[in-house]
User: What shape does this take?
Amino acid sequence: MSRTQTVPIAVRGRARSVHGRGRWGRWLVIASFLGPAIVFLGAFVAYPIVYTVVRSFYDKGGTAFVGWNNYVTMFTNDTTFTAIRNNLMWVLVAPVTVTIIGLILAVLVEKLGWKTAFRLIVFMPMAISMLAAGVIFRGMFQESPQLGVVNAAIVGAQSVFSDTASYPGAKPRPDQGLEVDGGIVFGTAAVTAGGAQNFPLTGIKQSEVPDQASDATPAPQAGDTQITGTVFLDVVRGGGGTDGALEPGKKGLPGVRVDAVAEDGSIRGYATTGAGGEYVIEGLTAGESYRVALPASNFSSGPQGVSWLSSTFINVVVIMSYIWIWAGFAMVMIASGLSAIDRSLQEAARTDGANEWQVFSRITAPLLSPVLVVVLVTLIINVLKIFDLVYVIPPGASKPAANVIAVEMWTVSFGGGANQGLGSALAILLLVLVLPSMIINVRRFKEERRR
Assistant: This one.
């Protein structure tokens, strides 16, 4: 009996000890996996946040406690107010625009046979760093048409659709009955309808004369209600010739506007010179005298580019660069959601007579709403922390107009301000602004997992 009584006792003790070792073993395994992550999060997330909160209540040197002074300064400083205002503009414009463009591209690309190649092209800017993208856009939007491709295209389009030309530096030949006043070249003597007025000009290089220009052509005989004449370069290549005379070798100046100005200063008619510089102003009153003039616009620098990098347009350029980069991300995310929806609902709607817009607005878009919310919230978090593009694209004079919280935080702390107390307060502000979007995103992920 004693043997039969002692055996169960030993088994129970062994089972109890095995169970205890198994429980502690599981905890040890869990700790071995979670321990490094906890240490990492504590060292690189929790500690910096706590230290930044504490540091925000001290002065710039970190020696004197100043309480809420840094936060008061943050909301009363003009540069910080501009940064907060720009961040608000970014949140309202950039994420919504990127999401809409991504949705449109994702839906339309479904109809293309080469959609994979198209998606690759649109997504390609994501492979470029934000720094490199900023350098690209700053070069594209340079004001000089010789440097910036955007302004080069604008100037080229203006030249194509404009029938006038510009000859900067042009001036009238002396002693030919012409004067200059405020950039306007005009004849000293009035011309009666039916008469003529030539404009011999100098100060223009032969290489600057348009290719379509031909030798100066004498204007036809004027009618009773016309004034005619020729605008030409009064220079013969290689020298020679008579001043003010229409001679072979002298080029006409095409595209020059010529006005007939009445005695009261009103413009009663105008014409544009042809390839040989000839012009005919029609519709004048017979017997009335006019002062024939070349407007100052003929002698301006011509079509010029837009100052895209000025304080007026700099935010537009920076946001455009962000849209160019992130539109591919939105398109790919929405396209993945589009491939997962039930296509039978769309086909049923089309069978019932719904057009494509109704199918998109009442079937496709509602089914994609979870993906759209995730994309939108992700972009909001991203634009609240935008730094690279805003730091690289604006030139020095435009940086204050394009300032955002992240750039202001860096500038105040490390970019010359040397005020890490105020910089810490700005970092906490940025954290507070980002947290709601992060919480929304986490909840969305949890809801998706439950489904």
Notes: The CA atoms of residues 33 and 216 lie 89 Å apart. The first helix runs from residue 2 to 55. The radius of gyration is 37 Å.
